[in-house]
Amino acid sequence: MSIKNRAVPYLLAAPYALVFAFFFLIPLILVVVVSFWDYTEYSIIPDFITTNYTDAFYGCISKLPELCTAFATYISTFKFVFLTWILTLIIGFAVAYYLAFCINTLSIQIALFLLCTIPFWTSNVIRMISWIPLLGRNGLVNQTLQSLGLTTEPVDWLLYSGFSVTLAFVHLYTLFMVVPIFNSMMRIDRSVLEAAYDAGASGWQTLWNVIIPLCKPGIAIGSIFVITIVMGDFITIGVMGGQQIASIGKIIQVEMSYLQFPSAAANAVILLALTLLIIVAMTRIVDVRREL
Amino acid sequence: MASRSTKIWLGIFFALFIAFLYGPMLTIFVLSFQGPQGGLTFPMNGFSTHWFQTLWEGMGVVDIGRAFRRSIALGLVVMVITVVLGLMAGLAFRKPFKGSGALFYITVASLIVPSIVVSLGVALQFRLMDEALKAFGQKHEIEWIVQEFTTTMGLFSSGMGAQLTWTLPFGLLIMFAVFNRFDPSYEEAARDLGAGPWATFREAVLPIIAPSLVGVALFGFTLSYDELARSSQAIGGLNTLPLELRGLTTTVTDPSIYALGTLTTAVSFVVIAISLLVAWLIRRRRLGHGSDAGKGLV
Question: I want to staple A23 with a disulfide (CB 3.0 to 4.6 A). Which of A41, A216, A245, B161 is the partner?
Answer without folding.
Answer: B161
